[in-house]
Design brief:
With about 290 residues, the protein is mainly alpha-helical. About 65% of the residues lie in helices and about 0% in strands. The protein is built from twelve helices and no strands.
């Protein structure tokens, strides 16, 4: 149902923004675009959520020369993720101690995988950053893996130079996010596939003969009636023919049918023909 998919989309985007905030509070390293957002935030004094919205809008403008078409999920991603990040940062205080920071990092990483599985399987279009990579892949003909690696390395390097945090969390994110998203996509996608909007049509059972006859057009019906009549006539002929239906024991032996004599050869006189026998009954006449 569209309502269910919409709920799945916005729940996923909200959790995605919250997961990015948890990674930021862990202070052990961010995901590539988080490094850039934090670096720009340090440079400009804007909140990380605001920078996320501005960067997402700028990336979305790059879709125009790439001829990418945004969907509802694409536009929603730009605003919902950034607003949720600022709201979560206002509610979650900085972690004290390394164990607490690692706990926030792991929680943010798993939550990021759950959120990605939710909003991707909703099917309302990719995020602006993912669309940038796929657009470059289509326009350049290079592999998607190469385009993704090139874009994210450039983003991480730029963010690090601007003051973003790169560390163990960045490496762990790069290694774990792929398997996590794949796992949660398999978990959430079957539920989407069973919704009425996307479920395949059931295989119809064999229709009864009456239903098949009711669907025949008038022209086809007349043709079918004629064929049926011919079949009835052929059946009657078969029943009347002793050579096909067999002799009728109630009528006695059938009289012999006179056949034409062979033509005499040269110099041989034709034998005189005798009188024709009485007309044989109708049942004994072989129909052509």
């Amino acid at each position: 149902m569209p309502v269910r998919r919409l709920v799945q989309l916005y729940v996923g985007l909200t959790l995605y923004g919250a997961s990015c905030a948890l990674l930021l509070r862990a202070e052990l390293g961010l995901e590539p675009w988080g490094v850039l957002n934090q670096g720009v935030s340090e440079l400009t004094g804007l909140t990380v959520g605001t920078v996320s919205v501005l960067v997402g809008a700028l990336v979305l403008l790059l879709w125009i020369p790439l001829r990418q078409r945004p969907g509802l999920g694409t536009v929603s991603n730009v605003f919902v993720v950034g607003l949720t990040m600022d709201a979560t940062l206002a509610l979650v205080p900085p972690a004290d101690g390394l164990p607490a920071r690692w706990l926030l990092l792991l929680a943010g990483l798993v939550l990021n995988g759950i959120a990605s599985g939710l909003y991707i399987s909703a099917g309302f279009g990719p995020g602006p950053r993912d669309g940038l990579m796929t657009g470059l892949h289509r326009r350049t003909g290079r592999s998607l893996r190469l385009m993704r690696t090139a874009v994210e390395l450039s983003v991480v390097a730029t963010g690090f130079l601007l003051g973003g945090t790169v560390g163990a969390g960045t490496l762990l994110y790069a290694l774990a996010i792929g398997p996590l998203v794949q796992f949660f996509l398999r978990l959430f996608a079957p539920a989407l596939a069973l919704t009425p909007a996307s479920a395949p049509d059931p295989v119809p059972a064999a229709a009864p003969t009456e239903a098949l006859v009711a669907d025949v057009s008038p022209a086809d019906a007349s043709t079918a009636d004629a064929s049926t009549a011919d079949a009835s006539t052929a059946g009657a002929s078969t029943a009347d023919s002793p050579s096909l239906a067999g002799p009728d024991p109630t009528r006695g032996p059938a009289p012999a049918v006179r056949t034409a004599d062979p033509a005499p050869s040269a110099g041989q006189a034709r034998a005189p023909e005798g009188p024709l026998p009485a007309r044989a009954p109708r049942d004994a006449i072989l129909r052509p």
